[in-house]
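Troubleshooting log. The previous structure file for this entry was overwritten by mistake, so regenerating from the original sequence record. Sequence copied from the archived sheet and checked twice against the printout by T.R.
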Amino acid sequence: MIWGSLFCMTSILLGAFGAHYLKQVFTPELLVSFETGVRYQFYHRMALLFVGLSGAHLSRFKQTMAYLFITGTLLFSGSIYALCILKSQQQIGLSGLGILTPIGGILFILGWGILCWSLILSKPKQEPL
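Regenerated output below.
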């Protein structure tokens, strides 16, 4: 819940920063990339809040999902932010940083997959009529 709240707060701050300051600094292409990072960060704060608020039926998987969403957000959105800053300053180096974005995406997919699986497992069994 704390990470979800933190991601919510920082995604709003970063979105406002991008809309008001970075559009003067970044190229339109970099601004679109930056906004993608903000958007995914915002989506996954919802996932973290949902997991935190979920009942006992997800308790077995909560920690794993939370770690996947937190790490995925830090890698996916964080690497996009860093790459945008480096590209805007015409800096060379840290080219391997780009590999972190898809790794973060894979962690998102795993987190959502575990959430889906845990919901399937927690579905009450119905007696046939």
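The longest helix spans residues 62-88. Archived copy saved in two places this time.
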